[in-house]
Amino acid sequence: MSDSSNPPVPTRKERKLCHSKRDEYLACLDQHKIGDPATAGTLCQELREAMFKRCPDSWANYFEQLRAMEKQKEAAYEQASRLRKVK
């Protein structure tokens, strides 16, 4: 018995394409020095749309959330490192 609320699991080929689109999008954010995708505005919008087209929504949302959290963590470590050097 299948549950119609769960989308089918992506094939290996679909996952590879999803990850490729994710990597292109994240590279664009890096190029423009954007840490939080929510602040990107129209920059990288086409690549973001391509990622959402090729990846399950839950994956694409997770990739963006993970990016924001990683950048926040990096900023916190950098700030702590600067504070230690000042003392």
UniProtKB/TrEMBL annotation:
<keyword id="KW-1015">Disulfide bond</keyword>
<dbReference type="Pfam" id="PF02297">
    <property type="entry name" value="COX6B"/>
</dbReference>
<keyword id="KW-0496">Mitochondrion</keyword>
<dbReference type="InterPro" id="IPR036549">
    <property type="entry name" value="CX6/COA6-like_sf"/>
</dbReference>
<dbReference type="InterPro" id="IPR048280">
    <property type="entry name" value="COX6B-like"/>
</dbReference>
<dbReference type="GO" id="GO:0005739">
    <property type="term" value="C:mitochondrion"/>
</dbReference>
<protein>
    <recommendedName>
        <fullName>Cytochrome c oxidase assembly factor 6 homolog</fullName>
    </recommendedName>
</protein>
<dbReference type="InterPro" id="IPR048281">
    <property type="entry name" value="COA6_fun"/>
</dbReference>
<comment type="similarity">
    <text>Belongs to the cytochrome c oxidase subunit 6B family.</text>
</comment>
